[in-house]
Amino acid sequence: MASSDGTLRLEGKVAIITGAASGIGEATARLFAAHGATVVIADVQDQLGEAVAASIGLHKASYKHCDVTDEKQVEETVHYTVEKYGRLDIMHSNAGVLGSVEGVMDMDLTQLDKTLAVHVRGTAASIKHAARAMRASGTRGSIICTASVAARQGNLGPAAYTAAKHAVIGLMRSAVLDLGAHGIRINCISPFGVATPMSCAYVGKAAEGVEDLCSEMATLKGVVSRAGHAAQAALFLASDESEYISGHDLVNDGGVTMVNQNNLRANK
Fold first, then answer.
1. 152 in helix, strand or coil?
2. Radius of gyration for the alpha carbons in the chain, expressed in angstroms and rounded
3. Scanning 24, 106, 158, 185, which has the fewest C-beta atoms within 10 Å of its C-beta?
4. Long-range contact list for 203-208, CB < 8 A, 24+ apart?
5. Alpha helices in 86-226, H assignment, sequence order
6. Along the 268 residues of the chain, how does pLDDT read in single tens digits?
7. Which keywords describe this protein according to UniProt (predicted)?
């Protein structure tokens, strides 16, 4: 899949995508590979991850088991990538869990810890070890973190997930200066609701039901929010087309977080 002018936007680049066995990560892995990148699919879902890599083509993708809450596994994934492909140009820290869905007064703090471990500790480890590898090789790389519209508006996700995604954006912003000194860019994408296995399990609906729910909430009508839209945002931030963009949270929500939801309901 080339751009409209026929160019491959990631030709020759090597990317790690965490949480790439399904959902937004899978869509991004497929899109990156279609644009010329070699992709390492890092996940804990071994069968799914290996199947995604095989379907992309083992000359363009490989699977590496990686639990992002374990810093050593993240470090090993980066080392594996550099050893196998000779470089690392892109790190997409995308692995995530929904975590505890209770309100604050009923929140299971053990589940909160697990949610923060995946999103915050996992993102920190991904940034740390990807940036170290890029610095060592002199690569002007791109690090992308998956945040969420829940980090902009308090009623768009469970409390634990919302807190974790706020922290992801904070980590990104805090890393801009350190990484920028080495020519490394770091940004976030913040998608609206997408029919992924995680979101379908949360609302107890099939993909079509989640898409209907998101379309009902959407301000931009006529377009259904899908994983491919988040992947396109990541592609832009991974490519040289965004070479002077760092510290940005690219919100991909059709304008939902710009609108008072009470007004939206009143206008229906």
1. coil
2. 18
3. 106
4. none
5. 109-116, 122-137, 159-180, 197-203, 207-217
6. 566 566 899 999 999 999 999 999 999 999 999 999 999 999 999 999 999 999 999 999 999 999 999 999 999 999 999 999 999 999 999 999 988 788 899 999 999 999 999 999 999 999 999 999 999 999 999 999 999 998 988 878 889 999 999 999 999 999 999 999 999 999 999 998 665 666 555 556 555 655 656 556 667 777 776 788 999 999 999 999 999 999 999 998 878 888 766 544 544 4
7. Oxidoreductase
Q: Which tokens sit at 130?
A: 């990807």
> How many Å apart are CA 176 and CA 170, to the nearest integer?
10
**Any idea which residue has 């290996």 for tokens?**
50
* Global pTM exceeds 0.70: yes
Amino acid symbol at 186: I
24 is written with which tokens? Answer: 């937004």
- Residues catalogued as catalytic: 161
Residue owning tokens 């079509």: 208
> Hey, what are 193's tokens?
């609701």
Residue the block writes with tokens 């609302």: 203
